Amino acid sequence: MFARASRILDGTTMYRVVLYALGALAAIALVLGALGFTEPFSLGELVGSLVVAVSVGLGLNVLLARLCAVGANHESALITALIIFFLVPPQELSGVWVVALASAAAIVSKYVIAVRGQHLLNPAAVGALVVTVLATVDPFGLSVSEAVWWVASQSLFLPLLAASLIVVWKVRRWELFITFMGVGLVVFLLEELRLAGWTLEAGALAQDARVYLTSWPALFLGAFMLTEPFTIPPRRTQRLLYAALVALLLNTTLLSPAAFPMSPELALLIGNLAFFPATLRRKLSLRFVESREVADHTLELVFDKPEGLHFSPGQYLEWTLPHAGSDNRGIRRYFTIASSPTEDEVVLGVKFGERVSSFKQALLDLAPGDEVVAAQRAGDFLLPTDPSEKLAFVAGGIGITPFRSMTRFLIDTDDPRDITLLYANNTRAEICWQELWAEAAEHMPFSVVHAIARERPRELPAGIEHGYLTAEIIRRRVPDYAERTWYLSGPHGMVVAYQKLLTSLGVPNRQIRSDYFPGLA
After folding, report:
1. Where do runs of H (alpha helix) occur along 340-491?
2. Selection from 20, 56, 298 nearest residue 162 by Cα
3. C-alpha triplet 21, 22, 26: angle, nearest 5°
4. Per DSSP, what are the bridge partners of residue 351?
C-alpha cells in the first residue's frame, strides 16, 4: 500500500499534490461545518468564504496575466485562494468583502511585489497581513476581524496532519519542515515558561506541546507555506536557517514589532525578506534550438543560453511549458541542467518511454524558436571545493545529467579530479554521452564502470558488469571506495538503496551525497 501511494505521488506534480491536499481539507471542513464542528463558523459562512476566495483569486489572476502579457498559472492562483480561505475567518454575507480583499491582495502581490518576473513574498501571507493590518488600524471603524488561521483547530487536526505529511513527503523538504517544527516547539515551550515565571510543571508543558501541535498555526504554515518554492532559499544551510528564523519569530513575543503584535503571516514575510538576496532567481525565457538523440529513448534538448543565467554544475531549474490537454502532472517540471556553465547553450537530457506525459509530448513537439520559461535555480549537489578529494559518481539512467554537467565543466576549466563513474542502465543502447566519458579519461584520472541489467551476460563485452551494482562490484572495481566521496543521482528508490549499500560497506554518511531528486516534483 505504501509503495502504491508513493507511485501515485511520484506520478503527480508538486503543485497538483498541494492543490488536491488543500481541496480535500476544504471539503472536510465543509462536512465538519455541516455537522456543527467548526463553531463559531457556520456552514453557510464557510461556503460563502470559499466561493469568494476562489472566484476573486482565479478571476483576478486571469485579468492581471492578460494585462501583463504573461501566462496565467491557474493552479498557483487556486492554491493561494484556498490558503486564504483557511487563514481569514469565514464571514457573514455583509463581511465577505474581507475575504475578497485578502484574496485580491494575495494575487496582486504576485505581480506587483516582484523582481525579474518572480514574486518575493509568500502571496497568501501578504493577503492575510493586509487583513490583519486593516483590523489593527481600523481607520473606518469597520470592526474587521484579523487573520486568525482558523485551520489550526482541534477538529481539523487529524486531516491537516495527514495533508501536511503528504505535501512534505512530496516536496522532499523534511529537513526544512522538521527544523521549523522542532525549533518552533522549543521556543514555544520556553516562551510559555518565561510568561509563567519559569515555574510551569511537566504536565502543563505537555499540555502546551499539545496545543502547539493541534491548535497553533505552525503545522499549516510549515507544510503549505514555508515550503512555497519561489520563496525558499536554494541551498540546504540557507533553508535550515530560514526555517529556524521563521519558527523563532512565530513563537516568541520578544521580537514583536512595536506597531502591532507578531502574527504567523508577518513572521513568514520577515523570513522571506531576510533571505531575499538568496532566493532572488529570475524567470528566463529559453529559445529552443534543436533536439539530438544521445541514446536509446533519450534526447538532448538544446536551448540558447539567455543572458543572466548563472548556475553551478549539478543544479536544476523549474521548467514551465503551457500546453493544451495537460495531464495530471501539469505544465511544470524540474530538470537538472546537463550542460556546463562554460558552454554557450543550455542542454537538458530527457528520457522518453513508450508512454509519455503531456509535458514530455509538448517537449517533443517543440519547434526551433519556441520558448520555454525556466526559473528557481537551486540545488546542493555540487562538486567539492577541494580538488584533491577522490570522487565516485553513481548514476541510474537519466540520473547521469548532473555528472555530464560536472564532467564537462572540469574538462573546460582544466580542473582534473580523480573520479570513478558507476553508470547503471538496462541496455548498452541507453548509455548517454559516451564520447564525453572518453574525453574525460584523456584529461584526468577518470574511469567508467558500466552495469547493464537486461542483457545476457555472455553478450556483454569484457569490463561491463551484468545486473545492478552490488557490494562485490564496488569492492572489486573501486578498491579505494572508503576513501572516496560518493555522489548518487537517479530515481529516489535507487538512491536510497545505494545509500544503504554504501553504509553497509562502511562508507561514512558524510561521504555520501544525494540531492533533492527534481523529477519527483
Report:
1. 358-364, 401-412, 434-443, 471-477
2. 20
3. 120
4. 298
Widest Cα–Cα separation across the chain:
85
Mean pLDDT of successive 10-residue stretches along the chain, which has 521 residues: 68 87 98 93 94 96 87 87 95 83 95 80 95 78 71 95 95 94 96 84 87 95 94 90 97 76 92 82 86 95 92 92 80 92 96 86 94 88 96 95 98 97 96 97 97 91 93 97 96 91 97 72 49
The CA-CA-CA angle for residues 425, 429, 431, to 5°, reads 50
Q: Print burial letters for 402-435: b (CB count within 10 Å at least 16), e (below 16).
A: bbbbbbbbbbeeeeebbbbbbbbbeebebbbbee
Beta bridge partners of 300: 292, 349
Q: Would you list the domain boundaries of the chain?
A: 2-279, 284-378, 391-520
Query: CA-CA distance, 33 to 425, in Å (whole number)?
Result: 53
Is 2-279 a CATH 1.10.3470 domain?
A: no
Q: C-alpha grid cell for residue 395? A: 548514476
Single out the residue of 345, 327, 334 nearest to residue 379, CA to CA.
Answer: 334
Residue 101, amino acid: L
Rg over alpha carbons for the chain, rounded to the nearest Å, is 25
Q: Cβ-count burial of 231 within 10 angstroms (0-12 exposed, 13-18 middle, 19+ buried)?
A: buried
**CA dihedral sign of residues 136, 152, 100, 274:** positive
State CA 78 to chain mean position distance: 18
What are the angstrom distances between the C-alpha of 30 and each of 35, 45, 90, 145, 223? 9, 10, 12, 21, 21
Strands in 298-304's sheet, in edge-to-edge order, are 332-336, 316-320, 371-378, 284-295, 298-304, 345-351
State phi, psi for 342 to the nearest 5 degrees: -80, -10
Whole-number pLDDT of residue 519: 47
Under 8 Å CB-to-CB from 46, ≥6 apart: which residues? 29, 30, 33, 38, 90
Q: Under DSSP, is residue 13 helix (H, G, I), strand (E, B) or coil?
A: coil
Q: Between 1.20.140.10, 3.40.50.80, 3.30.70.260, 3.30.40.10, what CATH number should domain 391-520 receive?
A: 3.40.50.80
Decide: 438 and 450 in contact? Cβ < 8 Å.
Answer: no
* C-alpha–C-alpha distance, residues 379 and 336, integer Å: 9
Beta strands in 197-275 (DSSP E): none
Residue with cell 513537439: 365
Question: Given the DSSP bridges, would you call strands 298-304 and 316-320 parallel, antiparallel or unpaired?
Answer: unpaired
DSSP reduced 3-state for 17: helix
Specify the CATH number of the domain 284-378: 2.40.30.10
Q: Residue for cell digits 464557510? A: 46
Instruction: Please state at what angle helix 123-137 crosses helix 97-112, rounded to 10 degrees.
Output: 130
Residues 6+ apart with CB under 8 A from 323: 331, 358, 359, 361, 362
